[in-house]
Each structure stands twice: as structure tokens, then as C-alpha cells.
Amino acid sequence: MGAPFRVTVRRGPRVDRLPADTLEQALALLEAHGRAAAAGPGRQAVDLRVRRFEPVQLVAARLELRGPARHSGGVDVRGDGSAEAWTGRLRRRVITAQEGEDAYAALRRVLQSTSVEP
What we know:
By secondary structure, this protein is of the alpha+beta class. Helix content is 24%, strand content 34%.
């Protein structure tokens, strides 16, 4: 039997699947890879004939955490290096960060509040 949690990191055509034994390990993996993606080269604006997409509108990396029960969520790292946390498997719901929180802290708060781990 494999690890109960899995972090999937999608960056361009590359997809990495990383196992984790606990929710805390999975969140740490997700944050480390997300911060590395934000520190890397950003995305350039995309000009189409009828519309222009700015870097903040483009997802440079998508990090997803899946686990047992209600543990499903992730972080989208935008082309300008900003990050947005979300929950859900089929329908993504954006997590509103509270004062002093970044996207990773907001995701950690929401997922740990539904935790069944001791």
C-alpha cells in the first residue's frame, strides 16, 4: 500500500507525483515546490488577436494535494509569481487568505481544520 497523501506538481508539460505519509509532510512538499516555481522564471504575456493574457492571468504551476477523506486542495502559482490556494476535486473553491496569511498558510489552515489525524 502506498502513502496516503500525494502531491502532484504540474509545471508546463512536466508532471511530478510525490508521495507523503502525513498531511504535514504533504503540505511541506507542496509549499517547497510552489515557492521554487514562484522563484523561477515567470510567464510572459500572451497576445491573441482578440485578447491579451497578462502573467497574473496565467498559471505557471499547479500544485495539487490529495489524500483520504476531505483532504483535497492545492495552490496555483501565477505567471507573475503570486499564488492562490483552492480546495475541491471537481469544483475548485478559492480560499480567501486571512490577514497575515499567504496562500500556503491559508491552504494549511483549511485542510488541517478538516484533519482526522491525531
